[in-house]
Amino acid sequence: MEYLFWIPALLVFHSYILYPIILRILTSKEKKKIDLFSLEDNLPSISILMAVHNEESVIAKKIESIFSTNYPVHKIEVIIGSDSSTDRTNDILSEKTILHPQLQYFIFERRGKANTINELLDKSTGEIIISTDANVFFTQTTIFELVKHFKNDQIGLVDSRMRNTGLQSHGISIQESTYINREVLIKNREGRIWGSMMGPFGGCFATRRSCYNKVPSTFFMDDFYICMRVIEQGFKTINSLDADVYEDVSNQSHEEFRRKVRISIGNFQNLFRFKGLLLPPWKGRAFAFISHKAIRWVGPILIIIALLANIALARENNAYLTVLVIFLVSFLLLPLDFFLKRINIHITFVRFVTHFYGMNLALLVGFYKFIKGVKSNVWQPTQRNQ
């Protein structure tokens, strides 16, 4: 029975605590010469692809952030697919095409992000494909900081560094931002050590055209699928800490939960599709895949197994009884946090605990929906400007 407690507990501990420490140690003395483009070089042409649905509140700002760049504008094409938008998105796109001849847009019937991007890919011509979301804003140097790494022929995909704005104490934005910042460092170190960054932040990443593969029509996590196909082909995936982009981090727990359920469905789709990359476990990319992703995705099941074993063991051992009490107290923080929010009291530590359990509940719900079967990946964007 003790094995049923300790194995799941140690796996969760490894994924969330030990693995990031291992990465930090392995990169602490790393000094590698990196082959990069300069702005004076003959830079590759790029195609920026974006699927949008009812993004009137952000689309104009997004387009202007793209064209406010130090990258040669004649090397850029922007292709946007409006996935059956019913607000002013299409009108704004029409206005922007007059100002920016490099911008094209197409109106589609509702089909989902992956199918929209797949169609836009066929219309693109760039040597480098940049996939991005409407609510993720570029800096003047974002495009160049992504593309400069492709001078190295081994690089297949480069991720950006997500910076968060709009942090508020009364919601979950601080916890979500902390989680994202930690993930950025983990992914950056995976890329530096093994050239196997485990999935980009889907808001903005660049892929070598020859490495880019279309996403299956029912897949949710298109960014992770594209990344793992690059790794599968023997190319490197990395994160560039200099390629800054900005996004309003989610602050409403119900919006973030809905988003994470969708992500969870995609996680399990990709886990089964790329199960071959889990072996051999001592190889860098497999170790990263298992440690960073696979264990976390089955984390809710591991926690439930550990809890049930803990209940059985607590009857015979006071040490396990103490652990069980800690377990149960942490669960009680969920209704406590809900009550405190109602009276406008916000305790950061309590919110971190509830955020962790919320993520794992979303994983469990997503797993259930995955088991039931996925027939469509049509999405509703997270509420903007919360």
TrEMBL record:
TM segment ranges: 6-26, 294-313, 319-340, 352-371
UniProt keywords, alphabetically: Glycosyltransferase, Membrane, Transferase, Transmembrane, Transmembrane helix
Entry-linked Gene3D superfamilies: Spore Coat Polysaccharide Biosynthesis Protein SpsA, Chain A
InterPro entries hit by this protein: Glyco_trans_2-like (IPR001173), Nucleotide-diphossugar_trans (IPR029044)
Domain of life where this protein originates: Bacteria
Family stated for the protein in its record: Belongs to the glycosyltransferase 2 family.
The UniProt record lists the keyword Transmembrane: yes
Protein name as catalogued: Glycosyltransferase, catalytic subunit of cellulose synthase and poly-beta-1,6-N-acetylglucosamine synthase
Pfam annotation, one family: Glycos_transf_2
UniProt GO molecular function: glycosyltransferase activity
Domain Glycosyltransferase 2-like: 47-213
